[in-house]
Amino acid sequence: MEEQPGHGVRMSDIAKAAGISRQALYLHFPARSDLLISTTRYVDEVLNVGARLEPVWNAATGAEQLNALIAFWGEHVQQIYGVARALLSMRESDAAAASAWDERMDAVREGCRTAMEALHRDGQLSDDWSVETGTDLLWTMVSIPSWEQLTAGCGWTQDDYVERLQRQAALTFVKADPQALV
User: Fold this and answer.
1) 130-137: Cβ within 8 A, 24+ apart
2) Quick one: 32-176 is in which CATH superfamily?
């Protein structure tokens, strides 16, 4: 899946790469979506997502939380891209894959909501945004298709992606300091 993100990865290809028969693979995973769902959970475990999210949850301010979330996501999306692309390509035709995708994207959306709530709590959420509309836009900004377009389509590096997204998110969502405008 990492070598061919979302492009024609068949159960027989996976079995061959794992050095097992296709039948043995089907004994454990009756459908490709079952394998993908298990793979997403395994990847989260291997990548120690909970510990890597600690800077996001432990940020002192909403602005710091927003920056930490984007930094985490910029690194994480690169690591999960193969599996994410496979789920994304299957979600229209496979209910289990759609459910797994929705579960993952709901978690990302909740992280965006938490950052917007922290900005609001701090009195730093721009007056142009509510927690809900800010969540909507941030969630769209960090979506896998947006990341894919900016990195693969436009040639941005990972550092470019994180730095530019952090800057744009701050300009968009964080209330301007009136003293800084003078």
Assistant:
1) 134/173, 135/109, 137/172
2) Tetracycline Repressor, domain 2 (1.10.357.10)
